[in-house]
What we know:
Helices cover 42% and strands 22% of the residues.
Amino acid sequence: MNRREVLKTSIAAAALAAAAPRLLAPSARAADPLKVGVLIPISGPAGLFGPSSRNCTELAVEEINAAGGILGRTVEPVFADVGGPPADATKAALKLWKGEGVEAFIGMHDSAVRGALTNLFKGQVPYVYTPVYEGGECSAGTYVLGETPSQQLEPVVPWIAANRGASRWYLIGNDYNWPRDTNAAAKGYIAASGGSVVGEEYLPFTADNFDSNLAKIRETEADAVLITLVGGASVGFNRAFASFGLASRALRLGTLIEENTLAGIGAESSANLYSSAGYFASIDTPAANAFAETYAAAFGADAPLLNTLGESCYEGIKLLAALAERAGSLAPSEMDAAADGTSYEGPRGRATMQDRHVSRDVYLAEAAGAEFRVIETFANVGAGNNCG
């Protein structure tokens, strides 16, 4: 029996046991499967991140179940697509929570959806938010893994200024809170490094023609472009950027350009392209190498590429388990009280929570054709003042 068959069998058995809760004694009910809602984009502009997110979630669930589950309960992931508008994501989450008995959530989706979900949950159910984001999330029962601008940009912008000579920055992103708030922070880091912002634009998710934007970038004589576009928009922009002949004039720095996005951009369009993140598939550490080997063995050579967003779902399940075990409960109030100091081991190394955020190593990588090559590591960078 292969890995997937084992997973399906265990979930089917757990679901059968859960089908007749009135026939179980209280002690048996405590061992019912723990349904965890996993909210990831399968559709929409971020849909290219969905398959790797699901794969990484399944790896974490199998690992935790093999070690006894969470609080002695087998974890059963229940996936939902949240690649659409926040209102649709809220409906999907509500169905899982109230309709299917989900007791905790992992979210790998955009910040607009996160805001809608924290308003829905109101601290009544644990919610681990995993991707890069703009910072400042302090809602009760919410625990953040993703890198903030303090981590991705505060050490990186001055490094690029000193080592690549960048001083004239153009900021371009999609039109919602993550790009806008990220760029608000970036302006301070750029100014502190002696640079200036020569242009700033926000585009709809549906944008697919970037000629006017690229003409503006060329006119400003920008020598660095900070990109906070998502998924398909990022792919299209970066391809057009190279075809416009701008790759030799200005470097590009992305805070959401991971391996799948780079594959879409293509080797022919990746010159002078950089990315800042807490994880790359090329990180050469024992923990990262072991994770990559396990992923390849489980899903094969044709699996979606490992990347920081997919891997964050693996760590989201690990963090949920660590929080619940430390608190001895899934009650958000008890998990909140236990959150500071909670730690776990993952592909990125050891992670420890403070103010319900995680300090971590941050990597600056340069595209080498269709792969990222890490060129600088910034050790144990804090997430900034988010809940102080």
